[in-house]
Structures are given as structure tokens and as C-alpha cells.
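Its record is retained below.
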Amino acid sequence: MEAREEIMREIWINRTERRRIRIGFDEIRARITGKSLYKSRDKKSLDAAIKERNQILESLSARDRGQAWFITSAPTRRERQHWKRQLGCWIVLIDPGMQRCWTRLAQDDRRRDQYLKYKQAALKWYRKYEPGLIDEVI
């Protein structure tokens, strides 16, 4: 299992290092607040990050070439359909498995103080997950 996950991580790194645009909500929010990843919890920074993310997405709609990674949690077919319609995107599911998610959370110093919150979020994602409308799984 570890070897497969390492390969998945390499695929992810190789794809993003080709300088495709990567839109990560947590990174946007951290930059706006000046805080570390996962440390902002207020509604004001949430709203500002959503606004900036949407502006980035809107600006991409005018481009006729290039690629972007838009990272979101979309466990249901309906949510993935929304983004597919909005962005005309290729849907890639990166799924290390629930147990591995929990292990990574436990090892992530940036989220250690909120471990239970994120563990519950991962559990909720897996409970809501619906297969389908996925173009690639890595």
C-alpha cells in the first residue's frame, strides 16, 4: 500500500510541477490571513477566500489554453456534476483510503490541534461518497 501511495504522490507532484495552475482553497485562505494552513476559522476569511477562489475560476474561463488543478471535496455525483458544468473539467479522484487519511491527519502538525474535527470530516466524506462521474482515479 505504501508503494502505491508513493506513486500517487509522485504523479501528483509531477503533474503540478509542470506549472499547471493549482487552485487550493486552504492555500488561498492561509495567504489571505497570513496564518498557517488550517488555522483560520473565522467567517470573514472564509468569505474572502471563496470570493478570491471564484475570481480565479472566472478568470480561467477566458483562457483558451493551459490547465489548472482545482481542488475541492466533492463526494457526491451532484457536486462533481456542478463543477464539471461550471468548469468543463476532467474529474480526478485522489483516494488514499479513509484509514490512511486518519493516519496522515495524526501525523500532520498543522492540524494536530483539530485532529477530531478533520477525522470527522474525512468520515463524513466517505459516508457521503457516491461513485460515478469520475474520469480518472489516482
